Amino acid sequence: MKKSGVPVLLGIIFLVLTGVQGIPIMKNRRCLCIEINQEKIQSQSLIDLQQFAPSPSCEKTEIIATLKNGDQTCLNPDLPDVKKLMKDWEKQVSQKKKQKKGRKHQKIKKDEKVRKSERPHQKKTT
């Protein structure tokens, strides 16, 4: 190979490798919701409610509700009922988190009291 061919070949290899690094790899190239449920869903019938923001793999906001019977359904994020359901769900979840924190705090205090009472009393020696 001629001396002038080596830099050209190295330049081509460099450009190819640079191009390969810039290609994003997407495992899931589609939206999760194919069909959207237009019916109103009661918050009492929910186990979980998840919201997925737009991403490179899906350009729209998706809301997936998991019902007590195990079914999953996609909700229209633009409907006022769904927006209200999301707000109610977020309040409910935040209240549960606060209750769990309160229980942990109470449990810690209770454990501290038990530990203090288990300590043997020591006599002062002077």
Automatic annotation (TrEMBL):
Start and end residues of each stretch annotated as Disordered: 89-126
A cellular component term, taken from the record's GO annotations: extracellular space
Protein keywords: Chemotaxis, Cytokine, Disulfide bond, Secreted, Signal
Localization per record: Secreted
Domain Chemokine interleukin-8-like residues, every copy: 28-89
Biased segments, Basic and acidic residues type: 109-120
Pfam families in UniProt: IL8
Superkingdom of the organism of origin: Eukaryota
Gene3D superfamilies: 2.40.50.40
GO BP: defense response; immune response
GO molecular function (one): chemokine activity
Comp. bias intervals (Basic residues): 94-108
Signal peptide (from-to): 1-22
InterPro entries: Chemokine_b/g/d (IPR039809), Chemokine_CXC (IPR001089), Chemokine_CXC_CS (IPR018048), Chemokine_IL8-like_dom (IPR001811), CXC_Chemokine_domain (IPR033899), Interleukin_8-like_sf (IPR036048)
The family this protein is said to belong to: Belongs to the intercrine alpha (chemokine CxC) family.
PANTHER family referenced in this protein's UniProt entry, alphabetically: C-X-C MOTIF CHEMOKINE 9, SMALL INDUCIBLE CYTOKINE A
Protein name per Swiss-Prot or TrEMBL: C-X-C motif chemokine
Organism: Trichechus manatus latirostris
